[in-house]
Amino acid sequence: MSETGPVRICRGCQEVIDSPATEGVLIAFEMSNSGPGWGIWAHKDHLDQVQISETALELALRLWGHQSR
Question: Among 12, 39, 54, 57, which is most exposed with the fewest C-beta within 10 angstroms?
Answer without folding.
Answer: 54
